[in-house]
């Protein structure tokens, strides 16, 4: 395995549950995080088994139980979940201590937004995806964390760069110190877009491999992970602090992931979370 692959998401097992974590973030010791797979849950049919999103037509109790199973290893409960309504935009919301549980159930969301930031320890920021990317960021100098959702619309509007800027502006975080990890998502070979979407990326300067290249007819391959990676670098994330996506394709791996594109919309969602570690009583901070 290359050093680069060793920083990005790797698959772990805990009983029936399978999830991914990025050693780059784990090693920091400052944050806990994970990205779920579809394995180890209780949902059925096209949603089998670990669907984590309510808006998929799943039964409320099953989603709740799936979130419980996924979060339990890190000491979180479904009641703790912080989430905004993802609208494929570039809105960024800050979560404070009083926002614990905003988004745990439908209608309790922290408003609309596709990225969450916080400097409050023990608050699990969450995002939901089935092909789109989730970006996990840690600013160790604050410390603060962020979780962003980027499909083609968010990527086209530089969500990656915007969330780095938000951590910088809100908390004084230094991009050169930040760690950034890109979740599994649909790969450039599986993901095609039409000429009008491709045109918007060409206009923004993303023409050619590994970002955007011609498929058949009016179709173009679009590699969201490659573009987000480049955007994070441009925003000041250092190479050794960046774990690229692209290793895990949600469409190529039906055994592990839901894929909106592959299943033509009738599918579940994976969930990602990141939280600043709470320093336990008696734990001495060495700096
Ligand atoms: Zn693929």
Which SSEs are present, and which pair or pack?
Elements: H1 3-7, E1 10-14, E2 17-21, H2 23-26, E3 31-36, H3 60-71, E4 92-94, E5 115-118, E6 125-129, E7 133-139, E8 144-150, H4 152-156, H5 159-171, E9 179-182, E10 192-193, H6 195-203, E11 212-214, E12 220-222, H7 224-234, E13 242-243, E14 270-276
Parallel strand pairs: 4-5, 9-13
Antiparallel strand pairs: 1-2, 2-3, 3-14, 5-8, 6-14, 7-8, 7-9, 10-12, 11-12
Helix pairs in contact: 5-7
The structure holds zinc ion.
Please give the number of β-strands. Answer: 14
- What structural class should be given to the helix and strand makeup? alpha+beta
Determine the strand fraction and express it as a percent band: 15-25%
What's the overall geometry? Answer: globular
Find the CATH superfamily.
Answer: CNF1/YfiH-like putative cysteine hydrolases
Topology as H/E string? HEEHEHEEEEEHHEEHEEHEE
Account of the protein in words:
The chain is an alpha+beta fold. It has a single domain (3-186, 242-276), classed as CNF1/YfiH-like putative cysteine hydrolases (4-Layer Sandwich), CATH 3.60.140.10. Helices cover 21% and strands 22% of the residues. It is built from seven helices and 14 strands. The strands form three sheets. The protein has a six-stranded mixed sheet with strand order 4-5-8-7-9-13. The protein has a five-stranded antiparallel sheet with strand order 1-2-3-14-6. Helix 5 runs parallel beside helix 7. It is globular. The model has no long low-confidence stretch (mean pLDDT 95). It binds zinc ion.
């Amino acid at each position: 395995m290359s050093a680069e692959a060793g920083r990005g998401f790797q698959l772990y097992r805990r009983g029936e549950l399978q999830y991914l974590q990025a050693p780059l973030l784990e090693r920091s010791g400052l944050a806990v995080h994970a990205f779920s797979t579809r394995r180890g849950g209780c949902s059925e049919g096209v949603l089998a088994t670990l669907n984590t999103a309510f808006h998929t037509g799943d039964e409320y109790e099953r989603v709740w139980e799936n979130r419980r199973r996924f979060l339990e290893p890190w000491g979180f409960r479904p009641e703790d979940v912080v989430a905004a309504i993802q609208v494929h935009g570039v809105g960024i919301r800050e979560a404070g201590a009083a926002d614990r549980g905003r988004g745990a159930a439908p209608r309790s969301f922290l408003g609309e937004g596709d990225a969450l930031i916080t400097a409050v320890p023990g608050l699990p920021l969450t995002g939901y995806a089935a092909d789109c990317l989730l970006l996990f960021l840690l600013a160790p100098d604050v410390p603060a964390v962020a979780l962003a959702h980027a499909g083609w619309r968010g990527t086209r509007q530089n969500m990656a760069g915007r969330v780095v800027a938000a951590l910088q502006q809100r908390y004084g975080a230094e991009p050169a110190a930040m760690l950034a990890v890109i979740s599994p998502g649909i790969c450039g070979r599986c993901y095609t877009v039409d000429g009008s979407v491709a045109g918007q990326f060409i206009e923004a300067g993303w023409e050619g491999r590994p970002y955007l290249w011609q498929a058949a007819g009016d179709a173009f391959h679009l590699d969201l992970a490659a573009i987000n990676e480049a955007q994070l670098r441009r925003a000041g994330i250092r190479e050794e602090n960046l774990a690229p996506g692209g290793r895990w394709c949600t469409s190529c791996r039906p055994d592990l992931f839901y894929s909106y594109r592959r299943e033509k919309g009738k599918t579940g969602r994976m969930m990602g979370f990141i939280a600043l570690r709470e320093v336990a009583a008696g734990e001495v901070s060495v700096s």
